[in-house]
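Hi R.,

Here's the chain you asked about this morning:
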Amino acid sequence: MIDELVGTKCGPLPYEYTFRDVILYALSVGAQADELPFIYENARGGLKVLPGFVSVMSGGVLWELVRELRIDLSRFFHGEERIRIYRPIPHSGRVYVRGEIPAVYDKGKGALIVCRMSIVTESDELLADVEHGIFYAGAGGFGGDPGPKTKAFEPPETVEPDFSLSCHIPENQAALYRLNGDLNPLHIDPEFAARGGFPRPILHGLCSFGYAAGAVVRCLCGGDVVRFKELKVRFSGVVYPGDTLVTEGWKDRDGRYHIRSRTGRGAALTHGYADVD
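And here is the predicted structure, written out as tokens:
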């Protein structure tokens, strides 16, 4: 049964990358030609790494953790994502990733597989924590724990967000993002997408997440990635290439920001929060 994955561990596994990987990631989550700190290796002050890149770093360990499943990729989706950054991400080098599956929740129509990762430098300094919540449609109903329930933040109708950033998603964005390592054909093959019940290929959840993290960096951190600390979201709606994704944030009394992203069809990322310095 799928809940037998609980307790699975992997790593540490090395992940090596160069400035080219960092730039590819930035372009694949909406960095523009005039944002030289994110896309130019010789930018004044050095190349800066967008925080969502740590999700890419942990991708190999994620697949190792679930390798025992005979996965139908048309039913395998990101359900939630959380990243926590502890120190600036180097623009190239080698890191090590450890992962484990602490829980598998029974959501009825599917199973939510929780995969937690830690990324450390070669000197064993903690760089980031990453938590992937993977929803596997059709794998629920095994009588397991349904998991904790959280209520989505509902923006007050009379209160404007503290920030709002609108980004058009180019038609070729999923084709570009998959070069970061997520080659699920759900995001490029129309026939495969139809098997999953979609009219056409959908955008990677982690691409939408990268856009949201970029909005936090641009709007709350003034472009300074060092000020970014944490972002968590739930993937509540599908984003398609060609959509316009609007990311908004409302500051609460504790200084944390409630985060929501939406398209013209409704909410895409919910249950979100961000912490910044």
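One quick note: Residues 2-276 form a domain with the Thiol Ester Dehydrase; Chain A fold (CATH 3.10.129.10).

Cheers,
M.
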